[in-house]
Amino acid sequence: MPGAAVQSAAQSPLIEVRQLGHGYVMAGEMMKVLTDINFTIHYGEFVAIIGPSGSGKSTLMNMLGCLDIANEGTYRLEGVDTSKLSDNKLAKIRNEKIGFIFQSFNLLSKLTAYENVELPLIYRNIPHKERASIVEKSLRTVGLHDRMHHKPPQLSGGQQQRVAIARAIAGNPPLLLADEPTGALDSKTGIEVMEQMKQLNALGHTIILITHDLSIAEQAKRVIRIQDGRIVEDRGEAR
Amino acid sequence: MNLLQSIKMAWKSIIGTKVRSLLTMLGIIIGVSSVIVLVSVGQGTTSQITAQLEGLGTDLLTVNIMGRGNTTSLSLDEAMELGEIAGVKAVSPVISDSVTVKKGTTNDSVSIEGIVPSYEEVKDFHVQSGRFIIDLDNEFRIKAALIGTEAAQTFFGSEDPVGQTIQLNGTSFQIVGLLESKGSSLTASNDNKILIPITTAERTLRNGGIRSITVQANDSKQISTVKASVEAALDKKFQNADNSYSIFNSQDMLDTVNSTTQTLSLALGGIAGISLLVGGIGIMNIMLVSVSERTREIGIRKAIGAKRMNILLQFMVESTFLSGFGGLAGIGLGYGLSALIGHYTSLTTTVPYSIVLISFLFSLFIGIIFGVIPANQAAKLRPIHALRTE
């Protein structure tokens, strides 16, 4: 349930990244995007990954979100090495372990808020009745239960992002991955969304925030700074 | 995610783009309805012709004599001898011609047939008032005549023709019976004719030979043996000369007509089937466009946990829905059109259930087949690429 996020397995870390590296072959030359990335994230942390555009932070976010697989190194999520998993296994991990919050919200515009939040639960084969109560609870958490039958174009940017947050927390994943969540919002709604994120973290959700904005990153408990594909700073790690 | 969810999603996406979905289905609608209309017209015509041919009697052989050298016909006695062949129930030789018939000031050309009494049974043609031609009429060359309803209308109007006289080529005949109305056969009207005794006809028409004989078998199953015996008898008579006679059996005709119309139906159905195929390609085309338009949607779905199978199923169900609904609409339209054709033209239409089922299943099949490529394309999309697409 969103209100009581996973707190289990305090003994082993949620995320373990070891010697992670990634590159693309472009015009016959290897373009290194990530080099020798190492960090550990524990349950309940609120981490910001910050870096200028082109620093490799989006690539890292794709790796952490199991949307892509790194060429080198290992990435363990809840102790599972993701580097050799099939597409379907990765889809299952994305569905059960990760909640995505995107800069451009990425809601399906033809579905209502309710149906958008319901979608990951459908892919998880949760029965209809149970789904309904989870969806309502998630939308209540972000304060949008009175708008659940609106479609995204009928909602403001801030509201859309809150629907996306409700969708991310609906499946109660151990990890929330937010990619520039305030990037498409004005500063006032951006602050509201950040407050929402802090609340979720207070409820026990582990959050990784990817941003280029230092003022946003400063609101996290821990900041990992990336430049030219390498970690140049990591401060505030728990333990 | 189960099939029901895929169906719900497909339904939403079809409803979301109503005009496009309708246009996409149009190909299938036209395909299915044209298959149904063309086959129904073909079937209707076939059953109409079949019914008419069966009305001629499948236990009958029609013998036409062309003759050999100077012998161009059979005598009445020779014709009646055919009745002694095993399996033959009755023989009805006919002399026919067209003569000028006169009653008072009314003149008209009417076809005359000289007949024997067995004509009544063989042709299943009876009088509605008066009497039929009997053996005595032939024996004494009585100038008696039976008149068809149409001819009666021409010469007597609403008066009762029985008992009145009429001039055939200047000879007076007394009308002894009014034939029942039989309508038109494949060749000519059965009602605009006058029947007289065959012996009288030989004189009146100055035509001594018989060129047409109808032979009735005891049973339509014996028709081929009877045909062989009649052929043997005629071969003997004409000393095996080629083309001296021909024997026509309505069953042969029926077979010919059936195979012809079947070929025709198949060709029409095939042409319509091609339009179904084109409709299927239309569906594939739109589905491919739809996949590239919805790349981002696919990316989002994949990011939140949709497996390949989920995406594949969603698009497959969508294309199958499009073709299935198109098929249903096509069936409705096909029924409507063939009913209209049956109502407003002289064509008879019969919609066979088998073709309805086949064309519906075929349209579903087309949706599945032409949905595979786009659905597979969608399912194969990598989530990061799909998410990057605007």
TrEMBL record, chain A:
Coiled coil start-end: none
Q: Does the keyword Nucleotide-binding apply?
A: yes
Keyword annotations: ATP-binding, Nucleotide-binding, Transport
Q: The ABC transporter domain covers which part of the protein? A: 15-238
InterPro entries documented for this protein? AAA+_ATPase, ABC_transporter-like_ATP-bd, ABC_transporter-like_CS, ABC_transpr_LolD-like, MacB-like_ATP-bd, P-loop_NTPase
Pfam families cross-referenced by the UniProt entry = ABC_tran
Which GO molecular function terms does the record list?
ATP binding
State the protein's name.
Peptide ABC transporter ATP-binding protein
Automatic annotation (TrEMBL), chain B:
Using the record for this protein, list the coiled-coil segments as residue ranges, or answer none: none
Keyword Cytoplasm (UniProt): no
- Which intervals hold domain MacB-like periplasmic core? 21-232
Residue ranges of domain ABC3 transporter permease C-terminal in the record: 271-382
What is the topology of this protein in the membrane according to its UniProt annotation?
Multi-pass membrane protein
Transmembrane annotation, as ranges: 21-42, 266-291, 311-333, 353-373
Location(s), subcellular: Cell membrane
Q: Which UniProt keywords apply?
A: Cell membrane, Membrane, Transmembrane, Transmembrane helix
Q: What is its main location?
A: membrane
**Entries under InterPro entries matching the protein:** ABC3_permease_C, MacB_PCD, Macrolide_Exporter_MacB
Keyword Magnesium annotated: no
Q: Which family does it belong to?
A: Belongs to the ABC-4 integral membrane protein family.
**Identification of the protein by name:** Permease
> What is the native source organism of this protein?
Paenibacillus aceti
